Amino acid sequence: MQRAAHTALYVWPHTVSAAMIRQCLKSRVPLQLSSRAYSVVPPPRDSEEKEMLDRILRVDHAGEYGANRIYAGQMAVLGRSRMGPLIQEMWDQEKKHLEKFNEILAENRVRPTALLPLWNVAGFLLGASTAMLGKEGAMACTVAVEESISEHYNSQIRALMEKDPERYTELLQIIKEFRDDEMEHHDTGLEHDAETLPGYWLLKNAIQLGCKAAIYVSTRV
Ligand SMILES: [Fe+2]
Ligand SMILES: [Fe+2]
Description:
Strand order of the largest sheet: 1-2
Largest sheet: 2 strands, antiparallel
Number of helices: 7
Oligomer: single chain
Shape: globular
Number of domains: 2
Bound molecules: fe (ii) ion
Distance between the termini: 59 Å
Number of strands: 2
């Protein structure tokens, strides 16, 4: 058994050590083998694919950036209330989403949207102003924004699946994981009385209109 620790299985093109397998069994994480020369996004084949991938990454990065600013605004107002820990928890997930897209943008030399300074201010103001309506206002904002982001991720998933699911496996995995988180945030908002806010549907529609516009311009600018 002592020798097993140094034994490696050679499965071309991977080398899998016994220690790796033990770690996977222990942590119940599936062993991931990747023979790709890239971590998330394949090197574009032509200018058309480059443009498509740049747009996807740019708008997703902008969305996660905006989401972070919205939660920052909510925390500025409700951070010390009993909603604080719940909002912080969702914000922490958004931080991880943003970090991942920061990484992917840098790795693929994609420039972020030129509108980040605008999303910085607009996101914070949206989060803070809705939080000023109380806990229900903050949750209504969360439901509206997270629904828009989930739908946006879903449409990207559909588009990438139609193009080439094998080629975009890693990117699809990330988008699906984040989409699931956003849906959870959306459900959290509903569970915490978002719909009881007076004028809920009006506010929700107005915010979602804003999200659509933000997605549209962040894809292009
Ligand atoms: Fe997110
Ligand atoms: Fe989210």
